[in-house]
Design brief:
The protein contains 12 helices and 5 strands. By secondary structure, the protein is α+β, with helices and mostly antiparallel strands. The protein starts with a helix and ends with a helix.
Length: about 300
Amino acid sequence: MPDWVTHLGTTYIAARTVVTVHPALTNRLSVRHLLLGAILPDVTRFTIILVDILDWPAIPVFTYFIPFHSLLIISLLAGAISLLCPVGGQASGRAFGLMMAGAIFHFILDEFDGLIGCGSTIFYPLSFSKLFNGWDDEGHFATLLLLVSALALGVALTHRRQWPRLTFCLTRWRLGGAVALGLIACLLPLFFQGWMIERNAYYLGFVTDPAAYEGQSVELCFSEVISTSPLTIEEFDRPFVLEDTRSLNQGDWLSVRGVYRQGMIQPTALVVHRSFSDLTVSLVAVVAFTFLLIDLETIRRLARAIRAKSGT
């Protein structure tokens, strides 16, 4: 998946292109809602903190959080946010539409990024197949896209004061509706965790029962090299031996497609990821996104709204 700099930058470029072609849409476009939607599907990145840092079990955490990277769950979250943060303080429908537009653009970019995809939850829980395997996410095009997106993000930061501020509407019925939608979004993935393994989503079926996939093509994404003799990678807390086809170092991160035979994966495609991960770049994007999304006046308005609500 692309990093957040790429997601934010390309979404901003798309927004500027739309208003340039259709100037009448300028007053109807809330860039902040659009950018929020472009980032919302990647709430799934919390799995990195829980699994890699806190050592939570990988499969239960992954099967719970990855459905948040879907149209179904994102529509529920966008609905909740749009109730509390409508465009202009009233237009929840427009806020929802803009966030969903940003999210859909995010999904399209994800579908084309990566030679090895492993799977997709865009149409969860009906389908887990990735529609396309596009450009190499470590290749020249992905790097160019990152650089262009970074420049666009810089332009966005200089223009952010011209954008309408976020406004919050914390009435009782809006709060109730937002809580209800949020609860549904948080509870729904609990009912499909086993289903994802049964459907071999993200090759979880293979990970849990490799012998059942003898002689079949499998894919593992963002796996860590934990040993070089024999060459062994770890995916979802499980070790897998790779046929040694190239020089790799312990601690490298890679994605691999290959055929599983006799307890070993024979690679047919292999991508070694950069020494600085997408997570590192995304941390930079978090800082930029914070400045894009809110300002001091927005914080003051939110504080006043909360105080007014607690005083009633």
